[in-house]
Amino acid sequence: MNSAQTLTAEVPLPEVAGTEKLLLTLVALGLLLLLPATFDADAQRAHWCFFAALGLISVGTLGWAGWKYGRKPPGVHHHNLWLRASTSRGAVAWITGIVLTGFYVILYWFSSPDDQGNYGPLNQLVHALDPFSQWLRNKPSDQWFLYGTFYTLAILVMGVRGLLKYRHSPYHLIRTGSLMFFQLGFAFLLPGLLLAFQRPEFYFSYFWPLKQDYLFPDTVGYLLKDGGPALGVFMVFWTAVISFVGVPMLTYFFGKRWYCSWVCGCGGLAETAGDPYRHLSDKSRTAWKWEVRIIYTVLVVIVLLTALLWVGASGAVPALQGITQPLSKAYGFVIGALFAGVIGVGFYPLMGARVWCRFGCPMAAYLGLLQKHFSRFRITTNGAQCISCGNCSNVCEMGIDVKQYAQRGEPIIRASCVGCGMCSTACPRGVLNLENGPREGRYQGSQLIHADSLRILS
Amino acid sequence: MHLVLIGNGITGVTCALTARQLQPEARITLVSAESAHHFSRPALMYVYLGHMRYQDIKPYEDWFWAENRLELVHATATGLDTDRKTVQLDNGSVLTYDKLLLATGSRGRRGSWPGSELAGVQTFVTLPDLELLTRDTRQGVREAVIVGGGLIGVELAEMLAAKGMAVTMLIRDARYWGAILPAEEAALVQRQLDAHHIVTRYETELKEILADENGRVRAVRTTSDEKLPCQWLGLAIGVEPNLDLAKAGGLDTDKGVLVNEHLQTSAPEVYAAGDCAQLREFAKGELAVEQLWYTGRQQGETVAYTLCNATTPRSYRRGQWFNSAKFFDLEYQTYGRVPAEPAAGEHSFCWQHPTRDALLRINFRTDTLAVTGLNVLGLRQRHDTWAAWLQAGTPVTEVLANLGAANFDPEFFRQYEKVIVAQFNQQFPQHTVQLRRRKGLFSI
């Protein structure tokens, strides 16, 4: 067939109903209102625009999700994903990507406050949240509070959409609920409350090496000092014990999913706001080669950097002092800001929602090694029932070509799998199941299909 | 050795992959008129639905073929000379083979209704069918009619309804897929059809197709003399083997290309497998022409052994029956044999959730209690476990006691083993079962 592209281009789309248009218009209006909220010289009016914008976006999105999914019988709703411009790298997707990327660039590099507390282009938006910030954190808003508010709102609103869309699956209901809970409670309210009580703003749901500086000597020192004798020690204890004991233990029993698609905020955004883009991840072997090259390099770099920082802090090698600080800054810039933020979220509509998790996150690399070699988790394939349709690979946000395993009757044991469970949900023949079981025979395939042993990844 | 395979569907490709492992040095050529690369036929519907693009339904990336030295030829095989061992292609070239496999598959049956050649009337089996459907339904189709109450019929209904067309299905039987599904199962599928606003006309067949002034279908008349306006008509009344090449080569054919147990045709070194093959001899309860993804795969694998090692040819054994499908949002799996009407000497135990879409049916021998078949709708059951139970003739009491071991539903899904066993005990008090095994979060 010569016209693969034309085929997809020509498939008819259903008419968009008036109600859907209206609800999407509300969302668009809300987004447009963010412009006067940002640029209107009248601060009062700008603040009103800001809240009206958030209201319209939230209400519009929730209404739209309810209209789109709530009225239909529960089931897999992936119709027209590859046909609509917004979810198939069309013009809408590019505009969304550019706007998101632009927002991150401004947030990271052009919104630090000057002497007058002016937050650059984001100034009006930041100050609109002052009353809320005062109430929650007992201090004025800043650019990170603005970001946290946007982030949490996105997870909550799009989380409700996920609850509606996947309501036929208790696994997704509980998992999405967990992500919403950890974002709202552990990554938004609790750090705010800690600030209100003049304690360090600490995120109990992020750990080294994702939150790399939590085990850097400076941060440890600061937590111990500012956190006070009990809380500070607990914070350091918590982050160290989860990183080195909790992570291996939980991953042994459940695979890396307990973190990546149940707790983590990056995963939280990917699974909710990023759900419409999950099929955009690249499933090719080439992409896999880059993934392996990059992600393990990041892991090695952060491990070495952390070790160097401690050696430097111990004063054993005085010469290190001058090197470690710039290195740590460079890591923060390249990995923490550029990779995790700008590319990680900015490229959602073009490369799928897990670009950061798949290519960059050192925590995912660490969890992945454990999942692959020291875990009871696997995705079992059901005998010989696979029809190679490709729905599983399509929905894999981590770019795993799941069907390669399913069509051979082999269990899927891959370091990158975050256990979102969507392959199992999308499978029209009930072939895939996320399971925790004995490690003996974990790689054992089904006897009912005779696997071809021709290589796929190498 | 040059192995030439005509057809790059699941049969031809499975044969090619198996042969590549058995004979690392053999030259293997796959010829296909339909597509440059192998694609998953059951997934065509998802391209139309927009779940995937055409490239996403290819089971292997394009580099795979060259790396495994599988030569692909995108052309139609028009002639076969079994004396000279050559295949003539429509691009003018000629392939010389040492061994030849015909895996030409099948095409949709069109029937012989007046007007079945009109524009807007088609079958849905092949990639060209999908392209035609795509072009023909792009605009102006508000109402569609589908003839046939089987798997392709329900797929088409889902596809068209998803695009906002009003769909009516004409079904010859008194219930959906009446030749295969027992009444309870069909009723559950009916719920899906109703929920998705598909209009069904049972015990109704197509009588006549009416054309508009442009030679396109504008309506159909049914055997109950109802006139249904429609701008598109799908014929989903089954498939028939592609026999053109076999006939051109003078092979023995009937409904399909006639083959023996080794899948060998009437000509030396020429084999046929998959949809296009017709077994000269077959076991009781099995079919001479098998037109399933799974049987295509099995036949392709079997024939590869014969092609690669003619001294010890493998016989094709159908093995245990299994199948699966999805009717809109309702999944279906079956293991063993579950006839549409109860078989003599068998009990049929059927549990159904009073409100949810979940059903489990176990057939078992009245004398030995050995399980003979399972149907599930809205539940997932483990193939390997059921294969072992069916193979061993495990008594239904033992199966029910361990039903949790076969539960393949995702974590946190509602478990029905308790109520299923309770109903069984009520229905068969002489064979009381104690549920021993439920599904746990920490075990498989």
From TrEMBL, chain A:
The chain crosses the membrane at residues 22-39, 45-70, 91-110, 144-164, 176-197, 230-254, 294-318, 330-350. The keyword Metal-binding applies. Pfam families: Fer4_10, Fer4_5. Residues 377-405, 409-437 form the 4Fe-4S ferredoxin-type domain. Keywords: 4Fe-4S, Electron transport, Iron, Iron-sulfur, Membrane, Metal-binding, Transmembrane, Transmembrane helix, Transport. The keyword 4Fe-4S applies. PROSITE patterns: 4FE4S_FER_1, 4FE4S_FER_2. This is 4Fe-4S binding protein.
UniProtKB/TrEMBL annotation, chain B:
Gene3D superfamilies: FAD/NAD(P)-binding domain (3.50.50.60). It comes from the Bacteria. Its cofactor is FAD. Keywords: FAD, Flavoprotein. The keyword Flavoprotein applies. InterPro entries: FAD-bd_OxRdtase, FAD/NAD-bd_sf, FAD/NAD-binding_dom. This is NAD(P)/FAD-dependent oxidoreductase. It comes from Hymenobacter terrestris.
